[in-house]
Design brief:
This protein has about 750 residues and is α/β, with parallel strands linked by helices. It is about 30% helix and about 20% strand. It is built from 22 helices and 29 strands. α8 packs parallel to α10 (about 240-245). About 55% of the residues are buried. The model is unreliable at about 1-5 (pLDDT under 50). The structure holds beta-D-glucopyranose. The site of beta-D-glucopyranose has 7 residues, from loops.
Length: about 750
């Protein structure tokens, strides 16, 4: 039960964040305050409810379910937002219900999970992150916003910026990988892509930073599991991307399903009120995750839905997604004086303000434009951009004897594997309105790339899954069937090279899709070994949504290209890389373990007291595996070679108000033009609190023609050296720092300097 004292503290927290001088009120503040004055308590609470669509807007509401009730609730102004209503026509009709029937005609805001495209699918976010290119990531979000807004949406539940260190967790596909700095830079780029510079334009949408906070640390990689991390990890690893997007003006936040420090994030006053709305001065609103308010009863944090509503609103969760807790209990809670009406006012203001910024009060239908929808969704222009983004997202993991790129004049190619001709899997998980089987398959991409004389021998070889594949169902894997092997072996025997598409079904990753075994499933590895016996020139094209444990493949395949789930244009983009129209430039943003037993594995770990081999067994290691990953964070090859010059610094010593410049030359010493991501890490070898062995602090993607070289320089300021104490205090400490520069987190050169007071 809430204590009176708590109520006072919360009210103070709100009042301090609402300390607005009347004279400096913005237009939207004035509008919102005036509107708020006209609203009854019920109307205010109405704004805090988000409902999922339960009916088909373009047809009559089905009988015997709650959909008719829902129509009435909307008409009454009891629904502030909807999710999963899509399409210009459907959103217009739904909006009309609210605007034309409710007393104050307040428009609803329509949200949807536009995670990597709306109908034109872009590579999954983890893939896009591998581009290490904020412009590429922004471009993808811009197109997604253009399409989603044309379908009547004003809000996406993206970007997800949960740092993910565990390949077992299915949702690593949705984030930027294991590094908080990279996740900050790329999430800011996504937010800018979605929101543009003016939210009221009809082709931009509000973004949502999720999941606040700690969700990426679900124990043992099992989705929705308990999170138990230190406040040190919270401040230094989990929170920085959220802080960065707040500073970049993200409109909304979504809280998370998990418990953190014993409290469900949805009920965390510390996260939502003290930090986000207090210290960080976030002016947007916080949405609960799906039923995360209700789930607090299962967590054992609330006795019933009513107490859950109380905890959530007090903690600063402004909008209730599908718990129906606020609609049922908030009024009662205010009347019983358990919730201060000021809390409701604050939440309503935040929501109305975003609606205002989106231009919904000016024209509630500006996003629902059937003409625009027809013209702008899945256009050739958008698919061309998706192809470009996909090319930038691929990571070349191995290329022995320069097997790649292939000549388009090659006489014969075998295209083999369960994913080779598949037109659905490359669309990935979280695929919004993608049309089933609409991706360009690898086979199709190769067919359009090669000369008319090239003979393509296709054979599937084996199946990956059995039964119906769908968003809602668990997958079943084909374990035994090798009946396709002879045909695949024949195709390989009759071809100069073999391109084998292996990996995962896209429904193996994503929400609710954690796995304990991250090796290739089914007969894939056996198929690879059978093909290898008859043709050694195998190029493996991987499609997957998480790091896979592929030590055997990595040893035996001469070439491996990581293509993730590349989206609508996957096959064309992969062909662009295979045949050298694009020189791969991606680098991993998440470590590839040798086996699942190493998970969680990440480059920015702490040192142990016994990090290196001694003459006995008592050091920090496995007795059956190296500690190192198969492929480290930051790793990725190119068709050309880059030579790094000696790194130099402009001073061995800097003061806290100064900066240090680090320089080196980078030369393209190969035969292809290419791009290299130069990575700068630091280490604070002695600090008040132990620091990681390396931390990414800067990176640059440099384009070079063959034979060309450029000087690459980075400026590090004292604040780049800082970190948070377990209490959340930002510390910049004097002493020696190591700078590591290189092509990935393992291959680096070192220079040292000292920070003095
Ligand atoms: C997910 C969110 C998502 C929401 C709405 C939840 O299950 O965790 O990320 O935005 O559903 O679909």
């Amino acid at each position: 039960m809430i204590k009176k004292l708590n109520l006072v503290i919360i009210s103070l927290l709100i009042l301090s964040s609402c300390n607005i001088d009347k004279n400096t009120l913005s237009k939207e503040d004035e509008f919102v305050s005036e509107l708020l004055e006209k609203m009854t308590l019920s109307e205010k609470i109405g704004q805090l409810n988000q409902h999922t669509s339960r009916w088909e807007m373009t047809g009559p509401a089905p009988k015997n379910d709650k959909s008719q009730d829902q129509l009435e609730l909307i008409k009454n102004g009891d629904v502030g937002s909807m999710l999963n209503v899509t399409g210009a026509d459907a959103t217009r009709k739904a909006q009309q219900l609210a605007v034309e029937n409710s007393r104050l005609g307040i428009p609803m805001i329509f949200g949807y999970d536009v995670i990597h495209g709306y109908q034109t699918m872009f590579p999954i976010p983890l893939a896009e992150a591998s581009s290490w290119d904020p412009e590429i990531v922004k471009l993808s979000a811009q197109v997604a916003a253009k399409e989603a807004s044309a379908a009547g949406l004003q809000w996406t539940f993206a970007p997800m910026m949960d740092v993910g260190r565990d390949a077992r967790w299915g949702r690593v596909m949705e984030g930027c990988g294991e590094d908080p700095y990279l996740a900050s830079v790329l999430s800011v780029a996504r937010v800018k892509g979605f929101q543009g510079d003016n939210l009221s334009k009809n082709n931009t949408i509000a973004a949502c930073a999720k999941h606040f906070a700690g969700y990426g640390f679900s124990e043992s990689g099992r989705d929705y599991n308990t999170v138990d991390i230190s406040t040190y990890t919270l401040h230094n690893i989990v929170l920085p991307p959220f802080k960065a997007v707040t500073e970049a003006g993200v409109s909304t936040f979504m809280n998370s399903f998990n418990i953190i420090n014993g409290t469900p994030a949805t009920a965390s006053i510390y996260l939502q009120r003290s930090l986000l709305k207090g210290l960080w001065n976030f002016e947007g609103f916080v949405l609960s995750d799906w039923a995360s308010i209700e789930e607090m009863t299962t967590h054992g944090a609330a006795e019933d839905l009513k107490e859950a509503a109380l905890l959530a609103i007090n903690a600063g969760s402004d909008m209730d997604m599908e718990s129906h807790a606020y609609s049922k209990y908030l009024k009662e809670l205010v009347e019983e004086e358990k919730v201060d009406e000021k809390l409701i006012d604050d939440a309503v203001k935040r929501i109305l303000k975003i609606k205002y910024k989106l231009g919904l009060f000016e024209d509630p239908y500006q996003y629902s434009n059937i003409e625009r929808e027809k013209k702008e969704i899945y256009s050739k222009e958008n698919r061309d951009i998706a192809r470009k983004v996909a090319r930038h997202s691929m990571v070349l993991l191995k290329n022995e004897k320069q097997l790649l790129p292939l000549s388009k004049q090659i006489k014969s190619i075998a295209v083999i594997g369960p994913l080779a001709a598949n037109k659905d899997i490359p669309l990935g998980s979280w695929r919004a309105k993608a049309i089933k089987n609409s991706a360009v398959s690898l086979l199709e991409g190769i067919q359009s790339a090669v000369s008319a004389k090239t003979k393509i021998n296709y054979s599937k070889g084996c199946n990956l899954t059995i039964g119906d594949r769908s968003f809602l169902q668990e997958l079943s894997f084909e374990e035994n069937d090798k009946s396709g092997f002879p045909d695949a072996i024949k195709a390989a025997q009759n071809s100069e090279v073999v391109i084998m598409a292996l990996g995962e079904d896209c429904w193996q990753s994503g929400e609710g899709r954690s796995q304990t075994d991250i090796r290739l499933k089914g007969q894939q590895l056996d198929l690879f070994n059978a093909i290898k016996k008859v043709n050694k020139n195998i190029i493996v094209v991987l499609m997957n949504g998480r790091p896979l444990a592929i030590p055997e493949l990595s040893e035996k395949a001469p070439a491996i290209l990581e293509t993730w789930f590349g989206g609508s244009e996957a096959g064309n983009a992969i062909a662009d890389v295979l045949f050298g129209d694009y020189n791969p430039s991606g680098k991993l943003t998440i470590s590839f373990p040798r086996s699942v037993g190493q998970c969680p594995i990440y480059y920015n770990h702490m040192n142990t007291g016994r990090p290196t081999s001694t003459n006995n067994v008592f050091w920090s290691h496995y007795t059956d595996s190296p500690n190192t990953p198969l492929y480290p964070f930051g790793y990725g090859l190119s068709y050309t070679s880059f030579t790094y010059g000696q790194a130099t610094i402009n001073s061995d010593e800097i003061k806290k108000n100064e900066s240090i410049q680090v320089k080196l030359s980078l030369a393209n010493t190969g035969n292809f033009k290419g791009e290299e991501v130069v990575q700068l890490y630091i280490q604070d070898p002695k600090a008040t609190y132990a620091r990681p062995v390396k931390e990414l602090k800067k990176f640059k993607k440099i384009k070079l023609e063959p034979g060309e070289s450029k000087e690459v320089s980075f400026i590090l300021e004292a604040k780049d050296l800082g970190y948070y104490s377990p209490e959340g205090e930002f510390l910049i400490e004097s002493g020696v720092y190591h700078i590591y520069i290189g092509e990935n987190s393992q291959e680096v050169q070192q220079v040292n300097f000292t920070l003095i007071d």
